[in-house]
Design brief:
Order of helices and strands: HEEHH
Number of strands: 2
Shape: elongated
Largest sheet: 2 strands, antiparallel
Strand content: under 5%
Length: 126
């Protein structure tokens, strides 16, 4: 067994870190920008100086985005088809636009969520 470290490890709350990530802000201070160039993570927070280079979100944000958009639009497709009976081409065009728009809006937020969670749980070098 090892002795307790000389300096106490700071407590990182998961919920605020995730909420800050969803707002595309630094998981620690909630003020600095987390992303630039749509989904590229900044090297460090402009406000508190948190080093963000060790983060590795990989395919997690894309997977979560597809999961959420697919479930929501799957139900929307079913409801639209059974309630209003639009023309197939019309339904396909509307659902395609909704799917692409939703995915583009949700992807950076899912990346922020994963980076915030990783930071709070001290994963991937944080």
């Amino acid at each position: 067994m090892t002795d307790a470290p000389a300096q106490e490890i700071e407590t990182r709350e998961v919920k605020p870190a995730i909420l800050n990530g969803l707002r595309l802000k630094c998981p620690r201070c909630g003020k600095g920008k987390l992303l630039h160039s749509y989904v590229k993570v900044n090297d460090s927070c402009s406000n508190c100086g948190l080093d963000l280079t060790p983060q590795r979100a990989d395919d997690g944000p894309a997977y979560l985005t597809i999961l959420i958009v697919g479930h929501i639009l799957g139900f929307a497709l079913h409801i639209a088809f059974t309630q209003w009976r639009p023309e197939p081409l019309e339904l396909a065009l509307v659902m395609s636009v909704l799917a692409v728009g939703s995915a583009l809006a949700l992807l950076p937020r899912m990346k922020g969520l994963i980076v915030g969670y990783q930071w709070a749980k001290r994963m991937h070098g944080f």
